Inverse folding.
């Protein structure tokens, strides 16, 4: 069980995110294909591949790594999620700049900053069938965990369990925002692509920052 994660070790955090996105790209596009245009995995993996190129052999801090993927998604990737996830990672990275160790409180600030920018830019609420259906319960669960046990790993576990549940909840929802909303009632019955990628992204962060799940 880890109580903190050294900020200087950003490379494994970023490589973990890149690998997670790339290895789930086909699944994410397939899910997006059921209610959208089937490009979510393509968009995200293009961003991941490009980030791997920009990273090269460099060592980065956690903040630099998150801002690296954030800037690539924000400036080079289209779709609804390129700019939204770009801002998500940039805010998360910005919230740990100048910090030596990520402890439970610091990650809470990072996640909180990411949630806030998503609310400002995307405006989605729980129940709209978007990535917020995974992110908002994950943040709530994390905040609950902040009040109890001091361990970072345990709080991250609570976060990913809630993200997974939130992702599953999208199966029974009708899309209210984005491309899938055009389908109305027909969007019910399949998972949301963004909620699925969000759950995977949070799990990847928990695996590296929390020292494995
Ligand atoms: P596009 O819909 O432009 O093809 P993507 O396929 O990359 O973009 O992303 C689709 C995902 O975007 C959806 O599954 C949904 O989770 C997410 N999304 C759409 N609109 C919003 C929004 N306003 N806020 C948060 N997430 C959104
Ligand atoms: Mg799409």
């Amino acid at each position: 069980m880890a109580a903190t994660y050294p900020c200087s070790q950003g490379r494994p955090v970023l490589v973990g995110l890149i690998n997670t996105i790339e290895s789930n790209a086909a699944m994410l596009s397939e899910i997006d294909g059921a209610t959208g245009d089937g490009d979510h995995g393509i968009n995200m993996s293009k961003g991941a591949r490009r980030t791997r190129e920009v990273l090269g052999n460099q060592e980065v801090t956690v903040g630099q790594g998150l801002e690296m993927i954030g800037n690539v998604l924000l400036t080079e990737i289209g779709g609804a999620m390129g700019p939204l996830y770009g801002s998500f990672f940039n805010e998360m990275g910005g919230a740990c700049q100048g910090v030596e160790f990520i402890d439970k409180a610091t990650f809470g600030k990072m996640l909180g900053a990411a949630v806030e920018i998503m609310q400002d830019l995307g405006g989605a609420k729980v129940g709209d069938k978007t990535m917020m259906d995974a992110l908002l319960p994950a943040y709530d669960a994390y905040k609950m965990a902040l009040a109890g046990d001091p361990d970072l790993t345990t709080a991250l576990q609570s976060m990913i369990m809630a993200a997974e549940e939130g992702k599953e909840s999208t199966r029974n929802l009708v899309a209210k925002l984005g491309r899938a909303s055009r389908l109305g009632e027909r969007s019910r019955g399949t998972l949301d692509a963004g909620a699925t990628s969000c759950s995977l992204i949070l799990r990847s962060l928990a695996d590296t920052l929390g020292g494995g799940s």
In short: The pocket of adenosine-5'-diphosphate (ligand 1) is lined by residues 32, 36-37, 39-40, 43, 79-81, 84, 122-124, 130-132, 177-179, 192-195 (CB under 6 Å). The radius of gyration is 16 Å.
